[in-house]
Request: fold
Amino acid sequence: MTTNTWQGCGSENCTVELYDRDNAVTTNFKYMFQKYTDKAHVLNDIIEDLGYELQNANLIENFSHVALPLQETITVAGRVCCDGNGRMNSQSVMLEGSVETSAGKRVSLLLSNLKEYSLFPGQTISVEGMNSTGAKLVVNKLYEGVLLPFNESEDIDTNKPLHIMTTAGPYFTSDNLSLNPLMDFLQVLIKEKPDVCIFFGPFLDGRHEQILNGMDGMDATYEEFFQTIIHTIIERTTPLKTQLVFVPSQRDVHHECVYPQPPYQITDIPKQQLERVHFVSDPSTLNINGVIFGLTASDILFHLGAEEISWPVAGSDRLARLCKHTLTQHNYYPLYPPADEMNIDYEYFEQFAKMQITPDVLILPSDLRFFVKDVAGCVCINPGRLTKGQAGGTYCKMVIQPRTTNKTGSNSGVAKETKAQIIKL
Reply:
């Protein structure tokens, strides 16, 4: 691919909008008022909703009680959990049924009869087997989840390729707060002229030693320093007319530390720049020229990888498997209990963190190794971090050619039309 094929046309030929504004966080909200009963209802609804999808997709007549002893093969659905406080292993897997089918009871799962499986705490699954004692269910068959359909909208711009660049913080090296890495990336952005550039937080990383120490020697607050960074990005890219998308992170010390996370609040943006600058929530589902992008700055891949168990140990693509878990569980953070660093408000999670469709492109910045993968037709991307320690990191650029519909007229994603590269800064 030649260099020119990466260059975009700017915002005049590109539209960026929320896929569903009614189910997106657009302003700050009050949190820390979550009741245990409300949280329990949300978690139970997740089991019932995904259980219904599994039942229809696999033509299951009905689900049995998970802990009811029967001398016959049964099919049950529930949420995977661990029988203790440690990391889950093949001997400690339990299944928690819904209130409707199982009164919230749990049963231990025996997995030795399965040739392969991939499980993590919080995953909603359906299993078939025998539970003769009511205490242990011997699993013979496992249904792990189904994919949502892709977007079927006819409002798709198919005339020109879509050029995207994306990067994720931290934007400083670990030994200082210099903006040099970000400036180097902006020079590349100015040269490549993408239609859209997506910036993921953190911008002020709470893990950076100097930020933890209050930015000694700098005559600015966290908020003022952040505003300076954002205004610098906007000013440097003004001649390009590139659409800019900013996604927050819970690692940002200056921003609300809750998931779902409201958009950044930026003041004094010039009126002529407002149409091309977009501050969205974490997570977000965007429609960019008819291509659906799923975005979250939470490191769900790293968190899932730390808790998932699978068999056989070798022979499958682990990173693709982790991405598929997110897609088949129909939300941007399916792990439960969540990682210690994740502060989830489950009342808002139910409304704002669910996937309504399978995105054409799913971007999941992570501390794991960068990648671009086709997962069941969805282009899954980990662009890496712009800095790693005291060195430069990576970013991603992609071109999505005009979409072609298949013979049935339905959308099967843009994986065949997409070319992407992970580039070292």
User: Anything to note?
Assistant: The two ends are 19 Å apart (CA to CA). The mean pLDDT is 92. The chain is about 20% helix and 25% strand. The longest strand covers residues 73-82.
